[in-house]
Amino acid sequence: MGSSALVIFTEDCTGRPQKTAGDEEITSRVSIAELDTIRAALSEATFWSGEAEFAGRSRSVLALKHFSSHALLVLTDPHPATPGHDAGLDMVTYLWGIAARRIQEKVADAPPSYLLESRAASAERVRVTAELTDLHSTTLETLLAALRSSSLDDALARSTVTDLTAKALVGLRTLSDRTADLAEEPVAKAFERLREDLRPLTRFGGLEIEFIEPPLNGRGLPGEVAHAARAIVRGLVLAMMEQPGVSRVRTQWDCDGENLLINVRDNGPGTLATDAPSIGRLDRRVQALTGNLQIDVMPGWGVDVVVTLPLDLQARPTGEVAEWNLAARELEVLQHLVAGQSNRAIALKLGISENTVKFHVRNLFRKLDVGSRTEAIALAHSHGLR
């Protein structure tokens, strides 16, 4: 089955909820609102084909939704145009199931470098969206004031345009809220998803898990903090279960307005090896978000773990940035990389060609002694570069 473009939409990847391939005229213009509309149209169905507003105009699309994660795959201009249950559709459905499950697995066990990159991209998206919202809101509110002016005697025209503009203003603010929702997750919702993640252990693992709910009015969690928190608790519970005699684990979340506070405690013999590789991986995940993990092993009484994850980006003191000997333009490119921007976006912002950006990126890799964008971003973050 052929298509002109492919778009994947998943809220699990907070930094980059869209993955695209194909016709750039389509992939560069598709919006989250359009993807949301198509996903809502699927309801309980697994696939849908037809005409839909996509990348700014009506197009023929084939959409498939992953059952457990609600991730969405959209193919534009599919061939054939009205696919049925044929071998082509069956193959696409099969491959999409594998890809969607793999995305879930990668996010569930995301390395620290992913968390750093995701947090930077989330923060940049929220900032840009806020700026655009303010700009367009001011424009539309000014237009409304002019159209309501008594100096305009065409009452019908004024009423019609006022209604249309008011609707556009509501739509703009809705899009802003939607973008914020992707970058932030209510703490109660994040905790409920943790409960669902651990349900198989209580059902099949013979383990009793006590959940102490966070406050309902607690501050929302940045997406990467929510994902990391669930993964950390899952990892701690599995590590605790490796001890003999563990039958009950208690997990509690709280929020003090600046940090997510996590406590996990078991009723085991207190024999957890704090230098185990699994604990080391969890500690690196915590450190990637500038958090803190403390383990108190009490022989005969159990293990008590306290994790603190800051909700805001924290600047770290920089000491080696000057020693990297970066040119002014290279430093600018690195800052845009840290913000999660592509080579093309950096080129547009700096008014240079994409090839020039690639040249600067190669120089950055050499000077920073790294082999990938992810390593460069992680290194820059570790030295307080934002």
UniProtKB/TrEMBL annotation:
<dbReference type="InterPro" id="IPR036890">
    <property type="entry name" value="HATPase_C_sf"/>
</dbReference>
<dbReference type="InterPro" id="IPR036388">
    <property type="entry name" value="WH-like_DNA-bd_sf"/>
</dbReference>
<feature type="domain" description="HTH luxR-type">
    <location>
        <begin position="320"/>
        <end position="384"/>
    </location>
</feature>
<keyword id="KW-0804">Transcription</keyword>
<dbReference type="Pfam" id="PF00196">
    <property type="entry name" value="GerE"/>
</dbReference>
<dbReference type="InterPro" id="IPR016032">
    <property type="entry name" value="Sig_transdc_resp-reg_C-effctor"/>
</dbReference>
<dbReference type="InterPro" id="IPR000792">
    <property type="entry name" value="Tscrpt_reg_LuxR_C"/>
</dbReference>
<keyword id="KW-0238">DNA-binding</keyword>
<protein>
    <submittedName>
        <fullName>LuxR C-terminal-related transcriptional regulator</fullName>
    </submittedName>
</protein>
<keyword id="KW-0805">Transcription regulation</keyword>
